[in-house]
Amino acid sequence: MARVIDAVPTSFEVAPFGGQWFAWAEIAACFWPGRSRRADKVNPKLAPVRELGGVYCFAWSPQAPPLIDPKAPQVKYIGETRSFLRRMGQFGHSAGFWNKRQDGHSAGWRWPEGRTECAWVAFFPVGQGLLPHLASGMRHWMEAVALEEHRLANGRLPEVNEPGSGVVAFD
After folding, report:
1. 98-150 pLDDT per residue, tens
2. Model confidence at 82: pLDDT above 90
3. What angle, rounded to 10 degrees, do the helices at 84-95 and 24-31 form?
4. 71 within some domain
5. pLDDT confidence band for 94 (50 / 70 / 90)
6. What is the DSSP string of 106-170?
7. Residue 169 placed within a domain
8. Does an H or E element contain 80, and which?
């Protein structure tokens, strides 16, 4: 039986997957090892998140930010998805992480082209166990809550989320 929602969350109290930020290099190595089950061997801690959905935060920092939360000042983008694997691929293609920019993710086009050396991602699974329409709604709602908490903590939305932002520069 699917879960029901007792009350709409008004704060972002979602545990980060694995309790940590993941460097883009780790994500790239684990998420796309081919069609085999090698991802589990490449990074058994990260591999299970690939098929989950929820809210994700891209941060820019030489080291993993100390706060694993959308409020972290290093967070440059907050998004939501039903599949972290699919969305990370779309973001990476549009940001030019592998080659020239390609269609797939509008925020990826605002990320500095090809820049991954200080990119970190935190995954926050949302909606597991809910009926599909509720899971989708909850992911969108929690993305909005995360954006608002970031705005309140930092005085602005994450740079890549800001309306009308072009390609941003972090250095």
Report:
1. 999 999 899 999 999 999 999 999 999 999 999 999 999 999 999 999 999 99
2. yes
3. 120
4. yes
5. very high
6. TGGGGSPTT--TTEEEEEEE--TTB-HHHHHHHHHHHHHHHHHHHHHHHSS--GGGSTT--S---
7. no
8. strand 75-81
Check: CB of residue 154 under 8 Å from CB of residue 82. Answer: no
Three-state DSSP state, 25: helix
pTM of the model: 0.94
Look at the chain and report how many structural domains it folds into: 1
pLDDT in tens, 51-63: 999 999 999 999 9
More confident residue, 39 or 92: 92
* Distance separating alpha carbons of residues 51 and 35, to the nearest angstrom: 14
Amino acid at 117: E
Task: In whole angstroms, give the CA distance from residue 60 to residue 32.
Answer: 22
In a domain, 2, yes or no: no
Return the amino acid letter for 75: V
Query: Which structural domain range is residue 157 located in?
Result: 17-161
Count Cβ atoms within 10 A of the Cβ of residue 105 and give its class: 0-12 exposed, 13-18 middle, 19 or more buried. buried
Which among 66, 171, 154, 78 is positioned nearest to 117, based on CA atoms?
171
Q: Is 170 within a domain?
A: no
